[in-house]
Amino acid sequence: MVLAGDPSAKSGTFALRAKMPPGYKVPPHNHPTAEQVTVLSGDFVVGTGDKLDEMKGQEFKPGALSVCPRR
């Protein structure tokens, strides 16, 4: 759900709310802009690289903020 801004715009900030099912995995991808994720509930694991490596991820608990640079 888009809360503010336009995620398809080439510039500017935007805010989204996403609800993922337990165990959901995001495949490796690039970020055209910086990204900030606030964990509302559950656990959120962030990793970097070309392959999904669950052993190298950093886990974030509810209330945590993950900041991912543009890549």
Overall tally of structural domains? 1
Query: Would you identify the regions where 5 or more consecutive residues have pLDDT less than 50?
Result: none
Radius of gyration: 13 Å
What fraction of residues sit in β-strands? 25-35%
Biggest pleated sheet? 2 strands, antiparallel
Termini Cα gap: 23 Å
Total beta strands: 6
Helix-and-strand structural type: mainly beta
- Count every helix, treating DSSP H or I runs of 4 or more residues as helices: 0
Described by the principal axes of the CA atoms, the overall outline is globular
- In N-to-C order, the SSE pattern is EEEEEE
Average pLDDT? 86
**Strand sequence of the main sheet, in spatial order?**
1-2
Q: Helix proportion of residues, in percent?
A: under 10%
Spell out the blueprint of helices and strands:
Layout: E1 2-4, E2 15-16, E3 35-38, E4 44-46, E5 58-60, E6 65-68
Antiparallel strand pairs: 1-2, 3-6, 4-5
